[in-house]
Fold this protein.
Amino acid sequence: MNKNPCKETTPDTQDTLNPPDQTAKTEKAEAGPPEGGSRKKRPRRRRKKSKASWSIDQFQVPERPGQTRFHDLDLPDPIMHAIADLGFEYCTPIQAKTLLHVHAGHNVSGRAQTGTGKTAAFLITIFSKFLREPLQGERPMGTPRALVLAPTRELAIQIVKDAEDLGKYCRFNCLAVYGGLEVKKQKKRLDKRPVDLIVATPGRLLDFVRRKLIDLKKIEVLVIDEADRMLDMGFIPDVKRIIRHTPPKAKRRTMLFSATLTEDVLRLAGQWMPDPVICEVEPEQVAVETVNQIVYIVTSRDKFKLLYNILHQRQDDRTLIFGNRRDHTQALVSKLKRHGIPCELLSGAVPQKKRLRILEAFRTGEVKVVVATDVAGRGLHVKDIGLVVNYEFPYEPEDYVHRIGRTGRAGVAGTAISFACEDESFTIPAIEEYIGETLKCTMPDEEMMARVPRLPKKQQPQPRTPKAR
């Protein structure tokens, strides 16, 4: 849903979803009675519920042939309220297929890439079940009702961020568990209050299960996200161990999502869920139909000039620039900053805590331009990226699709600009074959090739002085 509801997430994100007046209530209680006397009893005011100020009648969406409205799915009002706040009206294809089959009681194997709205599909399913089947009595700490497995910490963080958006009127406790963050900090959050949904990377989750910090015996809904990447990254043995700690497959709802449903992925799906319904969305819909793809023919020498002018023309756009190597992206960031363009770097060389701070600043708009490598870019899910620039063409066609998929998400139009220079244009035919269409190459106009302002002398890189022998 970007109509895809997906912001990206940080470990600093609030794990509880308290109503706005909760903090005020706590502060008032801590203040105690006035000094030297007792508090007079006052008539209790009836607190207005959040539902009272909103009804489904305020969220009108007309019927449209061939499209499924969220109204058509009989979702609980708190979820519909959040959907209305996010501005979503019609389901994406994977959302419509998944929600209809899951609500009919089926398990699902979904073929869908990033940007199709699959995250919202399984989160809506989980929260709807929680609201329709509330638990009675107290639950032990660290005993979630739903578990989502993700291959990377960035994706886990992103999913929790989406959960907070979709569950903002539900008071569910959603927590990301992943490596790279101190165990004590995550344990503290688990001990704070009962957790409803855990989104985890396999390694850290297994560690927590072994330490008996998390108990998976009460899992009602299990989601395996990006199963093909789990397979590629060698996580399947850990995933199998985790699933053995959950209830039998006949006693839980299971969903699996993957960009490709290979024989290996389908075999795993068969092991983990009985009789799954296969829901497919063609990858070409993500790569081609929602992204305006532009390829500029430019020399290596003129690349920076072209990029500089594009960024000045599109200053309001949240922009993601891709390079192929860490050292290349670092050099580009330094050069952009020297020329007065604020930007940040996301690569494997950037410490995890700093990467998370940069991602949050990118989401909020505090940072408008980010330069990234493919490793960092694959886990980057930020809403409303208006422009993606391939400063260097990727070596693999799949990486091209993943890069441009950062924009044009869930049916919302975006723009991807690629620079075809003498060193990298040889990859274009393979990309064209992979996406099933021809990339039209064009020359940039004169305005886009305007001279870059010269740097003041003190900012110009100084020639190295040979060391004295």
